[in-house]
Amino acid sequence: MTELSVDAPSEGKRDRRMSLGEHLREARRRLIIGVIGLAAGMVIAFIITDPVINFLTQPITIINEQRGAEFTKLVFDKISSGFNLRIRMALSIGLLLSAPVWMWQIWAFIVPGLTKKEIRYTVAFVCSAIPLFFTGGYVAVLVAPHVIEVMSNFVPDIGNNFLNAEYFYDFILKFVLVIGVSFVLPVFMVALNLAGIMTGKTMLKGWRVAVLVAALFAAIATPAADIGSMLLLAGILIVLYFAAAFLSLFFDRRKRKRTIAAGLDPDATAV
What we know:
It is built from 11 helices and 2 strands, in the order αααβαααβααααα.
């Protein structure tokens, strides 16, 4: 554990007398703990791959009920495809399951070098970003089956839709990650506001561009034929954008009041 010097400032800076070797040893120790946590998460994830695969392939079952039992199948085109798929799933799901372990190790290594104010901002950012990311992932899981079903309708009746297993999983994983990250963008907007880079008024002035970008992103992330999923995703992103803008306006108002209370000109210090 990192030791703090006796004469360290009240804001809690990392002890500057620590040698480079001590920093490296601490980093190595925390890296080892994080890797052990990841390995344990991967083992658990490998065990539960069957129910996860059954859950992810529900769209295939629905499509087969509509188009015939043999219309769509998940194809494993290599001898090692089944094993490779489970390893990839174990890695991605294991990262998720072990997140509390490796995230804590990163946090514990960085936090002695942060001020109390920076720690508060970091905690607020993480506590806001994680729920939003998982909410975005959940929305992606709800939308993905509709995307697959809609795209399967373009396959002619004389054809079959054989889906490569690894490609299918990559599609679901990337879809979830993209939508999840897009849900976190409003948190970055608020962070920029707190850093004094962007005001709430600036965000509101750009609402037309934000709506257009949200609509374009939703149109790219979902097939053009699936209007319902596109509108759902675009609507959620627009709501999150305005929520970030109004929250930034609230923070701007508080900053203005503090500036006036300090006897300064708020317009002169504004961004």
